[in-house]
Specification:
- This protein has 2 domains: about 70 residues, no CATH class; about 220 residues.
- Helix content is about 10%, strand content about 55%.
- Strands 6-8-9-14-15-17-18-19 form an 8-stranded antiparallel barrel. A 5-stranded mixed beta sheet has the order 1-2-5-4-3, with no helix packed on it. It has a 3-stranded mixed beta sheet with strand order 7-13-10.
Length: about 300
């Protein structure tokens, strides 16, 4: 009686069932051959191996020891990495420098009383408001940032919430005053903030302006599967609300002083912002088209620095 045909049909049926219903099972055929069924794996095949592809199924017969042969069956295609449509990062820190472009009309600011000059002394000018670039720092702390997928994770909407800390360190001995008695004329009272040249030589003299800021950016990514590869570019706008400002000074005569006040600073700060990522490194920048002061002085602020995040 011929048993070869029934045995052949039985083995073919078992192989078909295992393909349809048990793609992740491992079938061992003792003692010489071993057959592995792998779902969505990528296998490197040596030149000595034989490979048979049937639709989405790959059968690999490895050479080598005559007593041990290994057959690998791969079913299905490799799955693509899936990304969440919304991703969040917390406590991102920026470290950079603050500066401004001085566009002040000094004769006009002086005539309006926002700059007070001492009689017989040189008038305050652009040189008196120059900054110590290396010591005028910007620190931003983003409580969170979120990224929403717009087009296949290559184009995203990026926004967040944080605080923006700007420290403008002056080279000269100017002082900011919220208003009051003219330091050069005790009989004159000034009803608005003003700036004057102080008689004290300061070893430290800075104006600090802190904002609660919300940024909105369109984000472009060349490699969505890896934050450490390719280029990431973001551009947009931010809105900041001034919540603290102070003139901090240090001298031998007065010691350390921290005088709080608004000093005629704008309550809101609107800026154009950008971020550039090259691999794991991130650079950021911001530029405001409006002066940080409401009247008199016209200082157009900008910041540049490094973002400590590869997100």
């Amino acid at each position: 009686m011929n048993y070869k045909k029934p045995v052949t049909f039985t083995l073919a049926g078992l192989l078909l069932c295992s393909t349809l219903f048990a793609q992740n099972d491992t079938i061992k055929i003792p003692p010489a051959d071993t057959t592995k069924v792998l779902q969505n794996d990528t296998t490197k095949v040596p030149r000595t191996a034989d490979t048979i592809r049937i639709g989405g199924m790959i059968i690999i017969k490895r050479g080598g020891n005559e007593n041990k042969r290994q057959n690998t069956i791969t079913i299905g295609n490799k799955r693509k990495q899936r990304h969440s449509n919304i991703s969040t990062a917390s406590w991102i820190v920026d470290l950079g420098f603050s500066n401004y472009a001085d566009e002040t009309d000094y004769p006009s600011a002086t005539s309006e009383g926002y700059i007070i000059n001492k009689p017989g002394s040189p008038a305050l000018g652009e040189n008196d408001f120059k900054l110590k670039t290396g010591k005028s720092v910007n620190v931003n702390i983003w409580v969170f940032m979120q990224r929403i997928n717009l087009i296949k994770h290559y184009v995203n909407l990026k926004y967040g919430l944080g605080i923006e800390l700007n420290n403008y360190r002056f080279k000269s001995n100017i002082s900011f005053n919220e208003g009051g008695v003219n330091p050069h004329n005790p009989f004159q009272n000034i009803a608005h903030p003003f700036v004057f040249r102080d008689s004290i030589a300061f070893s430290k003299n800075k104006l600090a302006a802190d904002y609660a800021t919300i940024p909105f950016m369109i984000n472009f990514i060349t490699h969505p599967n890896s934050s450490k590869k390719g280029i990431s570019l973001s551009a947009g706008v931010s809105a900041g609300l001034l919540y603290s400002s102070r003139n901090k000074q240090k001298s031998d005569e007065r010691g350390k002083e921290k005088n709080r006040g608004d000093y005629d600073l704008q309550k809101w700060k609107f800026s154009y912002i950008a971020e550039l990522g090259l691999g794991p490194a991130r650079l950021y920048g911001s530029y405001s088209p409006k002066s940080i002061f409401e009247n008199g002085l016209k200082m157009i602020p900008y910041n540049v620095g490094i973002r400590l995040s590869n997100w």
